Amino acid sequence: MLDPHRLRVFRAVVGSGSVQAAADNLGLTSSAVSQHLSALARETGLVLFQRQGRGIAATPAGLELATQTEEAMRQWDRLDSVVTDLRDGRSGRITVGYFASAGSAWMPALVKRLTFEQPDLTVDLVLTEVTSRNVTPDIDVVIDPPDGGGRAGYRRVHLASDPFVAVVPSDSELATRRSVALADLRGETWVSNDLTGSLGHRIVMSACAAAGFTPRFTVQAQEHHSAIQFVAAGVGISVMPRLAARALPPEVLRLRITDPTPVREISALVRETGRPNPAAERLLEMLLELNTHPSRRGRPGGG
């Protein structure tokens, strides 16, 4: 079995590109670092580094080992944290997955409130819509696929319907309206705010097809913060979920979309472990309450 401490030293050398730099970062001597590297090479039977000028560089095998051990070391660090929590008397830990707009709109207030109620709780947040990590969140806030597919080991709880809106420059002709038919955006220059092929992108494209056109994207911003700034600069318009268009600069306005209105459904996937998880159930209560009574957001200890 590989020694986690040696792997940590090895990864520090790969990351810093220098035995001495890794030693300085880890608070070790360069001799101790070299000994760990030699021991790891014997354990694995691999040539991990090669001479490069006056220094060393990871071999292809070394780079691959560093890549493949990333998740294992993250899990080892998590186990270290669990042991520390137990030793220090902290009562629990919860892993919460989320997507970007839910993260910025909901998570800060929810985490503040949850940890106010449960001071010994450690909350790990994971942006599950983009992560390549093999994580199993206790609660994962997700966008429902149109086919309503589930996830093994989880129960689905619907949280909210999130309609898409048109984000337009405040000095445009469109800004004189309160709502706009989707077909009326046919001739506009569009700025994307999601990855092509993503669930949100497919929802928009399907609605546009139903309205009889295909939008013309000239900027692939691929996330809503940048897309909003492109709209503010007058580059074009963007169609994004209302949750993503909460905070807008004065140069931008938000319009309701009709005929049809693209909508995404948001749910919480709650992990079923066969044992009680009070923190997860409390967070689920808060998510449901937040979407039933939006005015209560962000009040630590509030009802």
From TrEMBL:
Q: Which InterPro entries is this protein grouped with?
A: ArsR-like_HTH, LysR_HTH_N, LysR_subst-bd, WH-like_DNA-bd_sf, WH_DNA-bd_sf
Example GO CC term: the record gives: protein-DNA complex
Q: Where is the HTH lysR-type domain?
A: 2-59
Cite a single GO MF annotation: DNA-binding transcription factor activity
Designated name of the protein: LysR family transcriptional regulator
Indicate whether Transcription regulation appears among the record's keywords.
yes
> Keywords assigned by UniProt?
DNA-binding, Transcription, Transcription regulation
Q: Kindly indicate where the leader peptide sits in this chain.
A: none
Query: What Pfam families does the entry give?
Result: HTH_1, LysR_substrate
Q: Which family does it belong to?
A: Belongs to the LysR transcriptional regulatory family.
Would you say which domain of life the source belongs to?
Answer: Bacteria
Give a yes or no for keyword Transcription regulation in this entry.
yes
Give the PROSITE patterns listed for this entry: HTH_LYSR
